[in-house]
Amino acid sequence: QGTQAKGQLTFYNSAFVTQSIVAGTLITGADGVQVVTDAVAQIPADDPNSGIIGSIAVPAHTVNVGAKGNIVSLDINKTCCLSNPVTVKNLSAFTGGQDAQSYRFPTQDDVDQVSQSVQANLEQKARQQLQSQLASGEQLAASPTCQFQATPDHPVGAHGMDVPRVTVAVASTCQAEAYASTRLQQQITLRLQARATEQLGPGYKQVDAPQIRIASQPASSVNALPALNIVASGIWMYTFGATQVHEMLLSIVSKNRAQASMLLKQARGVAEVTIKGGGDPLPSEIGRIHIIYNNNR
Description:
Shape: rod-shaped
Distance between the termini: 88 Å
Mean pLDDT: 90
Largest sheet: 6 strands, antiparallel
Strand content: 25-35%
Structural class: alpha+beta
Order of helices and strands: EEEEEEEEHEEEEHEEHH
Number of strands: 14
């Protein structure tokens, strides 16, 4: 915006009485610039005995905005204002008047537009750098969260100066939680083995490595850690020992087929029983009975 010129007007009173000029009095200079007083001018009376003309200076400003208001000294030098003679002069120049000027400056939309144009590439690089920080055996628990900060090298907004070029520095900060995948799988395997022993009891041995599936879940709140949903499964097979087989044989000698089948199904590790050959009841000699077991997974 343009500004108004400011200065002082000095009023002279040739009358023998004090005279007052109200604030806001309009006075026009020789070049047509109009000036308004900013304060009351209480002008002392003329003293003929001392030969001193009563005078007082008050602040004033131009009506119109612009450099044209920067009038030179004595551009105003005239009588004015009252019926009794009063003279007004600007003994010094009016200054500070400035024309309105057009200039370029960055807006927040400009900064945002620049930031958004580089965010995708910047985030990709930041994620790659984040991934490179993982130690051996570590994995990210969830997708990284990234924040961007755009900093222009000139303040945003109109500050009265032309800005032909602005450089915007955009920084990306990404963070994520990681976990030690190998150590976690070891812990899950141990817990799975303990759970199997607790539920199945002795005699069962794990076949092959357990199947472990780890899926991450988003954090429930801003400061919370992401959750890991872990599904682990394995196959255990029962192994019949010689002592158990001998005890099973002793339990079914001389038993009829129904009794023998019921007794065998009660034994640990037995799922199904099929009796083939022989009569009913079974032989009374243990050596004539054979138990063949099939370890199905």
